[in-house]
Structure formats: structure tokens, C-alpha cells
Design a protein that fits this description.
Chain A has 293 residues and is mainly alpha-helical. Chain A has one domain: Orthogonal Bundle (MetI-like fold), CATH 1.10.3720.10. Chain A contains 15 helices and two strands. Chain A has a two-stranded antiparallel ribbon. Chain A starts with a helix and ends with a helix. Chain B is α/β, with parallel strands linked by helices and 428 residues long. Chain B has two domains: 173 residues, Periplasmic binding protein-like II (D-Maltodextrin-Binding Protein, domain 2, 3-Layer(aba) Sandwich), CATH 3.40.190; 198 residues, D-Maltodextrin-Binding Protein, domain 2 (3-Layer(aba) Sandwich), CATH 3.40.190. Chain B is 45% helix and 14% strand. Chain B has a five-stranded mixed β-sheet. Chain B has a four-stranded mixed β-sheet with strand order 8-11-7-12. In chain B, helix 2 runs antiparallel to helix 15, helix 9 packs across helix 10 and helix 18 packs antiparallel against helix 19. Chain B is globular. The termini of chain B are far apart. In chain B, 51% of the residues are buried. The interface between A and B is medium-sized, with 35 and 31 residues.
């Protein structure tokens, strides 16, 4: 203990840059947003205290509930990317697989490309009249919908894109998790006569649960921040937007189209509260299914 | 103890961060000194159109020939983020010194004291409003003062594809067409070309290109004395015209337009005509149908009247410009005939300075003079208020999707008017 004391203020000096960054770029905006949510703030600042008025508007606003539902549906669909990624990652991890690097690169490619650029390409794929998707469905005799202009289809189209983009990242995390599983376990299981499927269910999946847990927390948080794919794939003037908008889109709309920053701050606080609660919930329930042995 | 001291330091630093930036001389009555060499300093000039950047750089070069001691750096942001960025900069007193402005945002920025009025420049004859179309001077004025020097302008005309008209054996549009002629031609075009997946009209059901001109031609209005005009019977008739066009299947719906914009159909030969502006000239010249296109004035309303909204960009100056003299000198130069001619030559925009549009008119073989004549003869100011974007959103969310729907415009119009009036009532 004494030796540590002798370090004096030096350690603090090393922590300072990060600490300052956190305070200036995270803590301060957080407090400012919280404060703003209780004010009426115009597009250029200049705020007046209005108490909980923004929150009562928020509760009375039907758009908010629709946005919550949309955001939850989106997040739920993107979460399906985790089991898919577990499957793909373990297939790619099979010893002796040829061209594993090529597959890995292909799966990871969507993650490193710009979301906006990807969305613009998918706009063309999804196009109801000329798009590749509907042309392909047409060959099968299915008359495809206008993917990006019909209410539920549009949301599903955005979510499928999000799912596709998330798989690359999921697989990298899971691949690292797979490397951490000792090979002896599989050897022992084979000696005991366990089939590949049994090994997958009894060894791979349980030992991957810490990675799966991490991914589900991160994916949920990212899902609640849905904005750019929605904006770029559907376009802000799309008539379907009022029915597919997410919470963050609502925030953007209030802040930069409606010029009502106080209300926008209240929406931001709502997003923070929901994400915080969900994350807390996930941490609470991890004991039941995540094994750290 | 140390942690407390540290925290105190952080808070102080944060306060300093928020405090700096402002605190400069008031730019309101900035004048340009007589000796150009005396004007010194650095300026930032914010724009959003990458196509026009070369012309803007040319203008800066020409400006520097006269004012060698001012360094102008151009900052480019895509239009979708441009005003978001400006509003953020405005709230921290760090707006660019001189920047592009559009009609819908002028009153918001001027009314929140973000812009410097042109009083000093006009008094000194550095900027003369008489050089620009009157409707544009009005668009860039707020509370009796002018804030913007008009940069360019656009009006609406009827674009059509001669080859498709010939193919359908329909007589080409003329300047004497009425809305009924437009509809009758659309019916024939649909019958002949519809089976090939070609639409009669590639109209995008946008406010500026489609229903503003229809409403104005019909004697209605969008906004007057702070009240919405969407409940006015004349305005409703204008809206109904477009709703009928969509319902008859001549014009794609708003949803179809969201997927494949009408202009893309038109410029790929998948639509025969459309109401649209002169900002599409460069797109037209790059299109596969560039040799088949023509332009005539808009069709007339049943009353025989024809109107188009006129909109244009303007250059404005921040109220907190760090170097008001240099900024004023640059702003005056941007409004000069020299600058207008550079713009016209580059062909990217149609300059607002009266009499400098010849180069623009000659930039494409499409009777582009129609747009210039429209500005002089039958244009009305673009409708704006202080919080234009709020009711513009009502228009995109509620008017455009209703075209061709089951609800008649006599229900949609008044419903939008009520909401718009509520929004207008909140402006202050």
C-alpha cells in the first residue's frame, strides 16, 4: 500500500486524457441532454424551463409507440443473426476446410462497407418494378411486393439488411470464442461416441455462451440506434416512413426537421432508458444461461 | 482532494470551451473599405453542391485578383447534412463566415439572429437588389431587411420526350395547352405506351414542381399572412388535378415515386412528360434520351392563368463573422456581375443577376429561355415561413401520399390546413 501511495499524482496524469475525453464527449452531453429534455430549446439554443411538458407530449404522442414497436421488431430480427452466425462460424471452424479465409472475408465484407453505400445498392435490389429480388421471385412465379414502400415489408427489408450486415462482426467474435475451446474436449467426446451434432450442442454452444451473451447485448444496443439504413434505404420522403420510423429517426425529426430540441432530448432520454433497462435485464438473466467455466 | 481539483479543472475547461467562439464584433453594418488591399484575413465559405464547387473556386480566384489579402476556404457538405450542420454550428456561434442559404431556411436563420442584414452593403451600392428578380429579394428578406444576395434561380416548365409523343401519335405540347389538354394527352399516351411499361407523366408529386404551380396557376395559395392556404377552394382544385392524374394511372403514386423517382423514369425514356425545374438540365444532358427532349411553358389552369413558383439560392453572411469586412467584401463580390458570368459559363446553375443568363440558355438545346421568361412574366415567390420545414413535412407525409387515394382533396386539404395553422401559430 505504501509503495502505491508513493506514486503520487503520476497515475492520474496518465488517466487524464481518457478521463477528459469521457467527461467532455460523454458525461457532459449526457447531462446536457437530460437538462434539455426539461426545456423548450430552439434550433440555435436559447432554452426556457418547461418542466415535464416534453415528457407528457411524449406519452401522448402515438408516433412514439409505433416507433418503439418498429424498433423492437427490427432489433428482434437482427438478433436472429446471432444463431445464424454461430452456425456459420462453427462450419467455418471445421478443421481442414478449404478456402476458409475466402469465406471469412466474404462474410466480413458487409461489415466494413459503408452502411449508406450498402443501403443504396439494396435500394436497387429491392426495387419493386426493376429490382433483382422481384425478378428472381418472378421466375418462381411469385409476384413480389414493393419492398421499400409497403409498411411491414419496408421494415422487414430494413431489418434483413441489418441482419446481413451484422453477421460478419458476429462471426469474428464467435470465431475468437471457438478458438478458446480446447480441442481435447472434442477428442474426448468423439472417444465417447458423440456425433458431430451432439458435440455442437453439448460442447460448442455452451462454451460459446459468453460470446453469444456479449453479442446479444451489443446487438440490442445497436438495434435501438437504427437510423442510417432506414434513412438511406427508404428515404426521408418515402410515404411509408411515418409507419416504419425508429426511435432515433423520431429524435432526428424532432431535432432537425421540427426544430424542437427539447422534445428531441426527451426522445433521446427515452431511448437511453429503454436501452439501459434492456441491458440491465440481460445482465440479470445471464446467470441462467451463460457459463463461464 | 486531487480528484476534486481535477474535476474543477475539467468543469472550467468545459466552460471555456463553450464560451469561446462568440464574442466578436457585430457584423450587422459591415461595409467594405475603399482600398481592397486593406481587407485582410481568412474566410470560410460553405456550400452543398459538389457540381458547383469548380465554379465557386473560380469565383474565389477572381475575388483574390481584386482582394489578394483574403484567404477563402470552401467547405462542402452534402445537402442532406448541410442544414443539420449549420444549425449545430449556429448554436455554438461557429457558423461559416459566408454560406449558401435556401428559401425555406432563411427566416429561421434570420429570425434567430444568425445572419447579418445587407443594409450597409446596399447603402454603399456594393449590392443593388435591382439586379435580381424581385421575388428573390422578397424571399431573402425578413422583417423589412434583406439578408441574402440572390445567387441563382429556378422556375418550372413542362419537359417532354418528342420521340415518345411521335411513337404514340400524339400532338406535341404547346404554350397554349391547358390542364385539360395535359390530361387528354396523358390518356392517349397511356393507351399507346402503357402496355410497354411507359408512364404518360413522370411527375414526382413534389411541392415545388407539381402542386405549388398548380395551386398558384389556379388562383389559390400555399401561405398568406401567416395562414395556410390548403383549405382554400382554389388550392384544393389545384391539388385535385394531381390526384386525378394519379387516380387515372397517368402519373405514378407517391410510393412508386419513392422507389423510382419520376425524373429517372423520364430520363430513361419510361415517361413521356413532366413538370420540373431547370436544375435538371445537367441530368438531362447526361441521359440516354438527351436528343429527344424539349421544353414548353407549363399548361394553363382552366381560368387561363399560368404561374410558377420561383426559388433560388442566396449567399448570406453570418451575424458573428470573425472578419466582417472581408466577409462583406466577399459577399458583395459573389453578388457581382463578374461572379454571375463565371457561374453561367460553368453551366451548373442559372445565375440570378439580370441579363447574365445567356450562357446558361445556350448550355443545352432545349428552349431553356422558357425558364428565364417564366421568372420575368409569371412567377410567384416560393412559399416560406419561419419554420418552413415543419409544414413541409406535413406536405410530404399527408398531401403527396393522398394523391390518387380514396379521400377527395376537399377533405385532405382542410385537414392539412388545420395542422399547418397550428404549426404556424407556434412560430415566434
Amino acid at each position: 500500500m505504501k509503495a502505491r501511495r508513493a506514486d503520487g499524482s503520476w497515475p492520474w496524469l496518465f488517466v487524464l486524457p481518457t478521463f477528459l475525453g469521457v467527461v467532455v464527449f460523454y458525461l457532459w452531453p449526457l447531462l446536457k441532454t437530460l437538462y434539455d429534455s426539461f426545456t423548450e430549446t430552439g434550433p440555435f439554443g436559447g432554452s426556457t424551463w418547461v418542466g415535464a411538458e416534453n415528457y407528457s407530449t411524449l406519452i401522448a404522442d402515438g408516433e412514439v409507440y409505433r416507433a418503439v414497436v418498429n424498433t423492437v421488431v427490427y432489433t428482434a430480427i437482427v438478433l436472429l443473426g446471432i444463431p445464424l452466425a454461430v452456425l456459420f462460424a462453427s462450419l467455418l471452424n471445421r478443421p481442414g476446410l478449404r478456402g476458409a479465409m475466402i469465406y471469412r472475408t466474404l462474410f466480413f465484407l458487409p461489415y466494413v462497407a459503408l452502411p449508406t453505400a450498402i443501403s443504396l445498392v439494396w435500394r436497387i435490389i429491392y426495387n419493386g418494378e426493376y429490382g433483382v429480388l422481384n425478378q428472381a421471385l418472378g421466375v418462381l412465379g411469385i409476384d413480389g411486393p414493393s419492398w421499400i414502400t409497403e409498411p411491414w415489408f419496408a421494415l422487414i427489408a430494413v431489418a434483413l439488411l441489418g441482419l446481413w450486415m451484422s453477421i460478419g462482426f458476429n462471426m469474428i467474435v464467435l470465431a475468437a470464442g471457438l478458438k478458446g475451446i480446447p480441442g481435447e474436449l472434442y477428442e474426448a467426446a468423439s472417444l465417447d461416441g458423440a456425433s458431430r451434432v451432439q458435440q455442437f450442442r453439448s460442447i460448442t454452444v455452451p462454451l460459446l455462451t459468453p460470446s453469444i451473451f456479449f453479442l446479444s447485448v451489443v446487438t440490442t444496443i445497436a438495434g435501438f440506434q437504427l437510423f442510417d439504413q432506414l434513412f438511406a434505404l427508404l428515404g426521408p420522403t418515402n410515404p411509408v416512413m411515418p409507419k416504419t420510423q425508429s426511435l432515433v429517426f423520431l429524435f432526428y425529426d424532432a431535432a432537425f426537421v421540427g426544430n424542437d430540441r427539447g422534445y428531441a432530448a426527451a426522445v433521446a432520454v427515452l431511448i437511453l432508458a429503454v436501452v439501459g433497462l434492456l441491458t440491465l435485464f440481460q445482465f440479470r438473466f445471464q446467470r441462467r444461461w451463460v457459463s463461464y467455466d | 482532494m486531487r480528484i476534486t481539483a481535477l474535476l474543477a479543472g475539467v468543469v472550467l475547461a468545459a466552460t471555456a470551451l463553450t464560451a469561446c467562439g462568440g464574442n466578436s464584433d457585430d457584423a450587422a453594418d459591415a461595409k467594405v473599405p475603399d482600398d481592397p488591399a486593406q481587407v485582410k484575413g481568412d474566410l470560410t465559405y460553405a456550400i452543398w453542391d459538389v457540381n458547383q464547387q469548380p465554379a465557386m473556386q473560380e469565383i474565389v480566384k477572381a475575388f483574390n485578383a481584386k482582394y489578394p489579402n483574403v484567404k477563402v476556404s470552401i467547405s462542402l457538405a452534402a445537402f442532406d447534412q448541410y442544414f443539420t450542420k449549420l444549425k449545430t454550428q449556429g448554436s455554438s456561434d461557429s457558423l461559416p463566415d459566408v454560406f449558401w442559404m435556401n428559401g425555406p431556411n432563411l427566416q429561421l436563420f434570420a429570425g434567430n439572429k444568425q445572419l447579418a442584414p445587407l443594409d450597409g452593403l446596399i447603402e454603399d451600392k456594393q449590392v443593388d437588389p435591382a439586379n435580381y428578380p424581385k421575388a428573390l429579394n422578397e424571399l431573402y428578406s425578413w422583417d423589412g431587411k434583406q439578408y441574402g444576395v440572390p445567387k441563382d434561380f429556378d422556375t418550372i416548365a413542362l419537359w417532354y420526350n418528342k420521340k415518345l409523343f411521335a411513337e404514340a401519335k400524339v400532338a406535341e405540347p404547346t404554350a397554349d395547352w391547358t390542364w385539360d389538354d395535359y390530361k387528354a394527352a396523358a390518356a392517349k399516351l397511356k393507351a399507346a405506351l402503357g402496355p410497354k411499361g411507359i408512364y404518360a407523366s413522370g411527375d414526382e408529386l413534389g411541392n415545388q414542381g407539381n402542386y405549388y404551380p398548380a395551386i398558384m396557376s389556379n388562383g389559390g395559395y400555399v401561405i398568406k399572412d401567416g395562414k395556410s392556404g390548403y383549405g382554400d377552394p382554389k388550392s384544393i382544385e389545384g391539388l385535385q388535378f394531381w390526384s386525378d392524374m394519379v387516380k387515372a394511372g397517368y402519373t405514378p403514386t407517391a410510393a412508386q415515386n419513392a422507389e423510382t423517382p419520376g425524373r429517372e423514369r423520364f430520363f430513361s425514356g419510361k415517361a413521356a412528360m413532366m413538370w420540373n425545374g431547370n436544375w435538371l438540365v445537367s441530368m438531362a444532358l447526361k441521359s440516354p434520351v438527351k436528343n429527344d427532349l424539349a421544353i414548353v411553358p407549363l399548361p394553363k389552369a382552366p381560368s387561363g392563368e399560368r404561374k410558377t413558383p420561383i426559388h433560388g439560392l442566396a449567399n448570406v453572411m453570418s451575424a458573428k463573422a470573425k472578419n466582417p469586412q472581408a466577409a462583406a467584401a466577399f459577399l458583395a463580390f459573389l453578388g457581382s456581375k463578374d461572379a454571375a458570368l463565371i457561374q453561367a459559363k460553368a453551366g451548373a446553375a442559372n445565375p440570378a443577376f439580370n441579363g447574365t443568363q445567356t450562357d446558361f440558355v445556350n448550355s443545352a438545346p432545349y428552349a431553356l429561355k422558357t425558364f428565364i421568361d417564366a421568372a420575368a412574366q409569371y412567377s410567384e415567390p416560393y412559399p416560406v415561413s419561419k419554420d418552413t420545414s415543419v409544414w413541409n413535412k406535413l406536405e410530404t407525409d399527408e398531401i403527396a401520399p393522398a394523391f390518387g387515394g380514396d379521400k377527395p382533396m376537399s377533405e385532405v386539404g382542410p385537414a392539412v390546413a388545420a395542422k399547418m395553422d397550428e404549426a404556424l401559430g407556434k412560430e415566434k
